[in-house]
Amino acid sequence: MTRKPPVVLLTDFGHKDQYVGVIKGVIHSIAPQAPVIDLCHEVPPQDIRSGAYLLGVSYRFFPKGTIFLSVVDPGVGTDRRIVIAQLGDWYFVNPDNGLLTLVLEREKLKQVIEVANAKYWLSPVSATFHGRDIMSPVAAHLYRDPHPRKFGKPINVGANGRSPLRLLATKPATKGEKTIEGEVFYIDHFGNLITNIPSQMIPRSRQCRVGIAYKKLHRIVRSYGDASPGEWVAVVASADLLEIAVNQGSAQKELQAKVGDPVRVEWE
Q1: Under CATH, which architecture does the 7-155 domain have?
Q2: Is 204 strand, coil or helix?
Q3: Where is pLDDT greater, at 55 or 223?
Q4: Topology of domain 174-266, CATH
Q5: DSSP 8-state code for residue 163
Q6: What is the average pLDDT across 48-75?
Q7: One fold for both 7-155 and 174-266?
Q8: pLDDT grade, residue 178 (50/70/90)?
Q9: What is the DSSP string of 24-42?
Q10: CA distances from 52 to 2, 167, 209, 257, 268 (A)
Q11: Residues 206-220: pLDDT tens digits?
Q12: How far apart are CA 150 and CA 142, in angstroms?
């Protein structure tokens, strides 16, 4: 028997409280056979940008048809929309607050449904836990029957190139004749500074220098181990983005770096 693709969870709930366990309980109450995978529950609280990064660099490693339930929802209880979006061959259930920004850069938006059919929600609905009462049951019902239109009203995807979904106000990296200007987009558990500069922008045939704050790195290496312990490196890491790191150390701590700090690549 062919196994259906999983439901994948991304939240800022952490593991101290009951929230993650409860949304899994809701899913299994409705779809007992659904395999549930934890992508990450340590998104910094209310940090939509970090959630968008984690989702954007991860979704394509899951089977086609996977349902991503993402609950990073600082607007919970307000009139912000909850949506089901089909991007490429994957489904996404989440608040419409920018979480899909990076996925939208990589995949064709095929359909969007504004979740409005309360038949598929728990009752009563808490104003502070839509992840439990709306999004989790919707994801579970979608797993049982992957036809999103029954959950609400379609949103016109449009043909003018404009997304009907909210996007983060991010500034893309820009390339000049001998420079690339970017910024720190995400800081991981190891203190590595992951930039918004994709590997395709970086000239292969040039010796590049990478600068951030007062630090200037005179080469881009293949791996962390190409440097000595404690040495700074610039590397194109697993997300295919330029990263600034300290071998066996934390670039964030040493630089007191933060998301949005400018990064410059230059060459002769």
Answers
A1: 3-Layer(aba) Sandwich (3.40)
A2: coil
A3: 55
A4: Elongation Factor Tu (Ef-tu); domain 3 (2.40.30)
A5: -
A6: 97
A7: no
A8: very high
A9: HHHHHHH-TT--EEEEES-
A10: 31, 10, 28, 20, 34
A11: 788 999 988 888 888
A12: 9
Kindly state the average pLDDT of the residues 65-91: 97
The amino acid present at 240, given as its one-letter code, is D
Q: For residue 161, what pLDDT band results from cuts at 50, 70 and 90?
A: low
Report the C-alpha gap between 99 and 166 in whole angstroms.
8
* Domain segments of the chain as ranges: 7-155, 174-266
Q: What is the pLDDT of residue 221?
A: 87
**Residue 170, both tokens:** 């991010």
pLDDT at 3: 79
Tokens for 9?
């969870």
Q: What tokens appear for 13 in the block? A: 């709930």
Q: How far is CA 150 from the centre of its chain?
A: 26
Q: Which residue has the tokens 């899994």?
A: 24
**pLDDT recorded at residue 159:** 59
CA distance 245 to 46: 25
pTM: 0.92
| Ordered alpha helix ranges (H), the chain | 19-30, 48-56, 101-106, 130, 136-144, 251-255
CB-CB neighbours of 220 under 10 Å = 21
Average per-residue pLDDT for the chain: 94
User: If DSSP codes are grouped into helix, strand and coil, which group holds residue 44?
Assistant: coil
CA distances from 23 to 113, 133, 154, 201 (A): 21, 9, 25, 40
- Locate 8 and state its tokens: 């994948």
3-state SS assignment for residue 187: strand
Say yes or no to pLDDT of 230 above 60. yes
Q: How far apart are CA 27 and CA 64, in angstroms?
A: 20
